[in-house]
Amino acid sequence: MRMFERIGIVAFVTVAWAVAPAHAFDGTPADNAGAARPVAAASPNSAAALKSAVPPANSLTSLQYAADGGHPVAQWKLGKMYAVGEGVAKDNLRAFEYFSKIANSHAEDSPSAPQAPIVANAFVALGQYYLDGIPNSNVKADPDKARQMFAYAASYFGDATAQYHLGRLYLGGTGVARDPRYAARWLGLAANKGQHQAQALLGRMLFNGDQVPRQSARGLMWLTLARDAAQPDEAWIKDIYASAIKKATDDDRAMALQFLEQYLKGRRD
Fold it and tell me: Do 98 and 55 reside in the same domain of the chain?
């Protein structure tokens, strides 16, 4: 089954979930941020799997040979190399082609399969390319296709980075009708998996009561986690945290600390 046929099936599941009764916005899984979009950025949960799947030293020739033979790890590695210009001239179209091969061949792989993080990551990369398009190519900006890529990885594979990007689309109304409450659901799923960018956006929404019921202490907890995990080039996260901590009351800070301790304990258990 081709990639877009499979996505069509999952789209139905996504819509059905969208109209389910609302759940709490505290990030508990249900029983326009200004952030940069690094191509094929891996979620915290999948980063280790991706790293271990790729041999530390592969020649370009051997990678191409393995990729031509349909090996998804080699295809993913080459896609990443061309996306950032690592050891090769940067070529977004070639990167797109390698990620597309993975998506087309492995969309129906089990979410528990060893290669699942790589497949999900390929869908995320494709979604990022569809958001902006690739200049001088037939890959045009198509927010709806981007949404489909993110939704598939988010729903079928449960990928945290895809859930974050999907939440951003609904938060900003990019390619979809703006729906902050639905955005909060996706961001909450990603935040609970340790996706720090999702933690930042969800934290800001909850702290400010931005189109969702205000939960200032819960929001401050998420912002604290996001700040601690933020990369040097993610000043926007630290700025959001700094703004919130200035407005927070003593009660907000004390309750946020309790929430933080509970969250960390749950992650350890």
Answer: yes
